[in-house]
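Module 6 notes. Inverse folding takes a fixed backbone as the condition and produces residue identities as the prediction. Think of it as a translation problem where the source language is geometry and the target language is the twenty amino acids. Below is one complete input and output pair. Work through it position by position during the lab.
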């Protein structure tokens, strides 16, 4: 279980760091995309966008410093994202996913699956005992988490490649 926690920590840290960094590169663009997912008064758009961009790296740092708190915050954030995507899909809105920067790829069920898997890792990480595994095993688990995170970040690009080839 401690290896799962190490892999989950790497996964959450890399995913949220990449997500926050990409949103910070175009904060105004991200803020403009927020109402497409979650309808809200115009005065709330910028504060909500800033809150997301601040909370994502905070969760990543917490996972490394106080893992249980970090995994709990990551779970809450992912639940909010998942609920927003599900609500948008239910309303028939296929807004572009700005999860990892500007893209034209519309949100879809695969984003719900991705977030659900990330929630599972975050919850398992929160529930795992805070026991330090042997260094070699932890390093391998952490590396696996980083590889999975890179695949998660590139998921939309990978989906486009497979869509074009079929």
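Target side of the pair, the amino acids:
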């Amino acid at each position: 279980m401690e290896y799962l926690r190490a892999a989950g920590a790497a996964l959450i840290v890399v995913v949220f760091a990449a997500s926050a960094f990409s949103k910070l590169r175009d904060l105004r663009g991200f803020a403009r995309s927020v109402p497409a997912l979650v309808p809200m008064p115009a005065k709330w758009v910028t504060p909500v966008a800033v809150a997301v961009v601040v909370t994502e790296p905070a969760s990543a740092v917490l996972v490394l410093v106080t893992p249980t708190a970090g995994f709990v915050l990551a779970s809450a954030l992912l639940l909010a994202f998942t609920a927003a995507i599900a609500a948008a899909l239910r309303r028939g809105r296929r807004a572009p996913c700005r999860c990892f920067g500007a893209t034209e790829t519309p949100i879809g069920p695969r984003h719900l699956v991705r977030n659900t898997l990330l929630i599972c890792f975050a919850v398992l990480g929160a529930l795992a005992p805070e026991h330090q595994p042997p260094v070699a095993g932890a390093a391998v688990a952490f590396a696996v988490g980083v590889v999975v995170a890179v695949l998660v970040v590139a998921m939309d690009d990978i989906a486009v490649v497979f869509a074009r080839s079929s």
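Reference fact for the lab report: The chain is about 80% helix and 0% strand.
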